[in-house]
Amino acid sequence: MSEVLKPALQALGVTAGYRRRRHPAVAVLQDLQLEAHPGELITLIGPNGAGKSTLLRTLVGAQPPLAGKVLLDGVDLTTLSPRRRAQRLAVVLTEPVDVGLMTVEAVVALGRIPFRPWAGRESKRDRDAVDQALADAGVEDLRHRMLSDLSDGERQRVMVARALAQEPAVLVLDEPTAFLDVARRIELAAMLTKLTTTTGAAIILSTHDLGFALRRADQVWLVGGDGTVTASAPEDLAYDGAIARTFAGDNMSFDDASATVVVADVTSDATVHVVADGRLKLWTEHAVRRAGWALTGNASGHVLQVEPDSPCRWRLNGTHLPAATHAEGVGFDSLVAHLRGRGAARNGKAPSPTSRRAPQ
Predict the structure, then answer these.
(1) CA 339/CA 328 separation, integer angstroms
(2) Between the CA of residue 172 and those of 140, 181, 201, what are the distances in Å?
(3) CA of 58: how far to CAs of 77, 132, 353, in Å?
């Protein structure tokens, strides 16, 4: 039996909120029981205004809890000096940090300040920690570049490296992918996942990327709109409907296959059974939903057969349908155009142009 590691960070009965001068305190999240263990990647998700930022500020000691305690390595966070806290907990913020004219190496070396005596020289351990942080964040080749010359994705990696130089037990990131393009988001997500193994740190990050949160996280902290936070495995939260209840709304639904909330594209009562395999089936079903049709496992009505050519060839027919309604074509664009035409006709609207005929 594997040993259960002690939590690196705990929230025990924490109420997070604000104290206002001459006004009653405002509680945003109440009676929280949360644990972050070494080597875990934890994603914090929830609607805007639900309290994610308030929770993060409370967990890192930027604002005290209204009730309860936050423990870092089993010690009340409020009793730790800023220096001691910085030796065990590192934070990466969303907003770009202006550090002036500094090289990447110099910025990363700032993470060693909590370990140096006042006006003390850099030690070998400091240099080793900086080298390791540069390597772990994948920015070794940027060592001598000026931070101001880097792209947003490169800068974000450098700020992660600066945090890693602190050798933290807990790394907290606030929306680390907010300003990154798709490719850079994927790179950063892969790096953070790897860091839980290479550093052993507990990594907690807030994100609006629901797909990343559910696919990558060991644990999800779901902030609801009722002042609660539900902590569980991503699969549990998705399977029992908690994700759907939190995020889905009018014309939106949670899609299990893509692990995210999607627009409910069905606009008619038309249904079709897709006959295809692998990626071809996935993208055919995507096109069907985009056209406003629903998918069904019943092959007694409309049946859509798709062949894996490039572009694909498709054929729509049905056992009880008149021959005049059968169609075939080439490419997903013609398929969507045809389905929209048929769907409009079923709803009493003028049909769109029908399919292109497949080449003979």
Answers:
(1) 11
(2) 22, 21, 10
(3) 10, 29, 58
Note whether residue 359 is domain-resident: no
Assess whether 221 and 303 both reside in one domain. no
Q: What is the pLDDT along the chain (360 residues), one digit of tens a residue?
A: 445 679 999 999 999 998 878 788 889 999 999 999 999 999 999 988 889 999 999 999 999 999 999 999 999 999 999 999 999 999 998 776 667 789 999 999 999 999 988 766 788 999 999 999 999 999 999 999 999 898 888 888 999 999 999 999 999 999 888 777 888 888 888 888 899 989 999 999 999 888 889 888 999 999 987 889 999 999 999 999 898 888 877 667 777 777 777 766 656 678 899 999 999 998 999 899 888 888 888 887 889 999 988 889 999 987 555 554 678 999 999 999 998 886 554 443 433 434 333 343
Are 279 and 242 found together in one domain? no
Domain that holds residue 289: 271-346
Q: Beta 252-255 vs 229-232: how paired, if at all? A: unpaired
Distance CA 146, CA 156 (A): 14
Tell which of 203, 219, 250 closes a domain: 250
Domain shared by 298 and 236, yes or no: no
Q: What is the CATH number of the domain that holds 42?
A: 3.40.50.300
Same domain, 161 and 278: no
Beta-ladder partners of 112:
none
List the strands of the sheet with 41-45, edge to edge: 89-92, 170-174, 202-206, 41-45, 219-223, 229-232
Contact 46, 246 (CB under 8 A): yes
